[in-house]
Amino acid sequence: MSVLSTIVFSLSALLRIHAEHVHFWHVLLAIFIALVMSVSGDAIDFCIGKYTNKLLNHWKFFQKHFSEQELARGERFVQRYGKMAIFFSRYIPGIRTITSYVIGASNYSFPIYVSLNILANLIMLTLYALFGYFLGGIPFVKEHFVVIVMLLVLLPLIPSLYFTWKKNKKDSSEKTEK
Predict the structure, then answer these.
(1) Per-residue model confidence (pLDDT) at position 119
(2) Any idea where the VTT domain is (predicted)?
(3) Cα distance between residue 82 and residue 84, in whole Å
(4) What is the reported pTM?
(5) C-alpha count within 13 angstroms, C-beta hemisphere, residue 115
(6) Are 77 and 85 in contact (CB under 8 A)?
């Protein structure tokens, strides 16, 4: 779950927990604002990928973090799974930004990208908002709200931390072999 999804979940649950007469349009407004923020951020990542791809060869910082092999692998992934990659990357923390960047760098169609991105974000944010809204009425959730939100923020970080650790371990073993 991304930070934005956690915010929408939390806001929806808080509306249900602390307000006796919650208007559902408050939840819809939260979804709309989060959708605009999410789609805008992804579009910026797409544009950065599209317009800076050629500059990567000149900046050592980017060469260190984005090798040509990794970008080529990303482009093959986009060619193979383009629409599915756009749609399902919304649900994987850390992959979301990289996917938008790689899709932009691979000269993917912007209108198709934006359409799928809006649809994926709308589904994701609506699910989290409804999930938070209906769970907010459960007494256990009311009593342990802070712990639940902290778990929602921290749990998705575990796969990202694991893959970062695994990559660093691989890089350090390659350096010791040389």
Answers:
(1) 93
(2) 24-133
(3) 6
(4) 0.69
(5) 7
(6) yes
